TrEMBL record:
Coiled coil: 121-148
Protein name, as recorded: ORF6N domain-containing protein
Domain KilA-N DNA-binding: 8-101
InterPro entries: KilA-N_DNA-bd_domain
Keyword Coiled coil: yes
Keywords: Coiled coil
Source organism superkingdom: Bacteria
Amino acid sequence: MDIQIIQNKIYEIRGRRVMLDFDLANLYQVETKRLKESVRRNIERFEGEDFMFELSEEEYNVLKDRLRSQIASLEIDGKGKYPKYSPFAFTEEGVAMLSGVLRSSVAVQVNRAIMRAFVAMNNYLIQVSQYSAELAELRSRLLLVEREVRENLEAMNDLSEDVRRDFDTVFEAIGALSVKLPEARKPAQKIGFKK
């Protein structure tokens, strides 16, 4: 079974990654009703939200809106478009517990694939968090480099302004000297006989 298909059926609800009963029933090739019956017969295995919980009406309505095309209809052209009751959401631990309740060979194979999908997703999330940390470090380094470049440019501007002022002073002095030189000279006497 393709892990990607299973990963597409893992949702984030109440801050937990879960799979819904109708998706699990589809994967296990049983009716959702039969899956829920098996769970209810063995409810002590699923006590606590860390294994399974039923979606509230509000959560279910949000889910229906988000996943309208993925929710299996009860009857294609009949009475109900969506399951009559809110679905059960099974956490990773709850899905593992289902393997003790559903004992068919299909259920065993599907359960293995689901566990692999959860592990792959956990590994992916760990990698993403590592990349996020590295990216944050790179951002802080980039900001530091930007600040240093900005400070260097400001220092260069200050320096070039000082150098420009110094050159202006030198040019003014040269200009003042060139004006004074012609005034200071007496007209040169011509060489030769005077008339």
